[in-house]
Specification:
The protein is mostly helical. It has one domain: Arp2/3 complex 21 kDa subunit ARPC3, CATH 1.10.1760. The protein has 7 helices and no strands. Helix 2 (27-38) crosses helix 5 (105-132). The longest helix is centred in the middle third of the chain and has 28 residues, at 105-132. The relative contact order is 0.16.
Amino acid sequence: MFAALIAVCAILPAIKLTASGVPITLQTFGVLLAGAVLGAKRGFLAVALYMIVGFAGLPIFSGGAGGLGVLAGPTAGYLLAFPFAAALCGFLVQRIARLRTKKWHTPLIFFAGLTSSFVFIHTFGIIGLSIQLDLTLTQALMLDLAFWPGDVIKNIAMAIVATAVHRAFPDLLPRTHAGQTNGSH
């Protein structure tokens, strides 16, 4: 289901950035939501399924692209980062879910998503832009800065949705071993 959600987020109309050739889509919203809702392992696997289906040729990447040819374009680094970002977000959210007080869950999930985005998506994206567009890392970083405000907004939305899903389905997020209780600590 999350692989399909990411595909829908990717093919919805995008905002084109002419300087980098990388469009602004809702893809990262879906990727990080998969991690936040499903946890590290299942989030990684859902996003990996999306990637495999897209690399196999289904036109589910931004702009209706599909196939391995996308790896020769400016979006390659961003795409390759997606499963790892979902895994990190899921890992962090699984730890957040252990907190006894729930009032900080939404802001903490927001920071989990933003951290995952900056650690993996932006880092891989900058490297990919540098390689694919023959830019210095500084030049690629300058192009990547255009995505930061949108990422903040998408992560706010992701945190709100993930928190609502956790409230509605409290057992959906896998429990980590340390998060399970057996009556003793």
